[in-house]
Amino acid sequence: MTKKVGFIGTGNMGAAIIRGMAGDDNINLLGSDLNKASLKALAEETGLTQCENARDLAKESDFIVLAVKPQHAPAVLEEIAPELGESKCVISIAAGLTVNQLRELCENRCAVVRVMPNTPALVNAGVFAVCLDDSHLSDEQRSFTSEMFTPLGDVHVLAESMFDSFTAVIGSGPAYVFYFMDAMIESAVELGLPRDLARGMVEKLFEGSTTLAQDSKLHVAHLREMVTSPAGTTVKALVHLDRTATRGNIIDAVRKSYERSIELGKK
């Protein structure tokens, strides 16, 4: 049976999910966005149906994907609430909104699903956490929601109690990786390598290292040891990182993100 999936917000993440679902004959895509020019271009690319506003979209959709900034979510859900019912499901990718908060904002009219993506989903290499804790979800809604993000990367069904941990490590994780990549590029430039060349080298370094970690049966600690010869250049650098508590600082930084995620969920 064909499902109608509507997206309120077709920015970077919303558009990425739409592109991942486009072409599925069992799904009819709908979209609503304040940027009408961008919405029109996405409609021409993917075949989605443009809706004039969020309420019209909610009326026509079986699944409503809330892809707006968290601060805008309450107003949007208040607008569409009259169109919600037991046959519909709201899927939120807005950070920080809990299942209970979503249900309250939807006036308990329909089932809700909380999803946390990360930005590599923009290149079909994301990691998604999907929370199916709402007891009002039907088996069909559970199955469809857990599968709809698979074209964009790995999907993990997690209890909501694990979402703050996921957010701190995986949701925020790309920023940590890019931060380290940027530092590596700057170190290469400081040592005399041209910036463009340094960037390409560092990008390939991360790509190759990630592929090796994924393809190898060895733990990443063992892979690190393979590069670390006694009294060599690598061990000199790693000992410096350990002496300056870099590992501990990374662990502490992730905990800071975790604590902030908990704070945002209480607002």
Q: What is the gist of this entry?
A:
The protein has two domains: 3-160, Rossmann fold (3-Layer(aba) Sandwich), CATH 3.40.50; 171-266, ProC C-terminal domain-like fold, CATH 1.10.3730.10. The protein is of the alpha/beta class and 267 residues long.
Summarize this structure as a short list of keywords or feature phrases.
2 domains; 12 helices; eight-stranded mixed beta sheet; Rossmann fold; ProC C-terminal domain-like fold
Would you kindly provide a written description of the structure presented here, covering whatever features stand out?
- There is one protein chain.
- It is elongated and about 70 Å long.
- The model has no long low-confidence stretch (mean pLDDT 94).
- An eight-stranded mixed β-sheet has the order 3-2-1-4-5-6-7-8, sandwiched between helices.
- The longest helix is centred in the C-terminal third of the chain and has 21 residues, at 195-215.
- It is an alpha/beta fold.
- It folds into two domains: 3-160, NAD(P)-binding Rossmann-like Domain (Rossmann fold, 3-Layer(aba) Sandwich); 171-266, ProC C-terminal domain-like fold.
- It has helices spanning 12-21, 36-46, 54-60, 73-80, 99-105, 139-147, 163-171, 173-190, 195-215, 220-227, 233-243, 246-266, and strands spanning 3-8, 27-32, 49-50, 63-66, 89-92, 111-116, 126-131, 153-157.
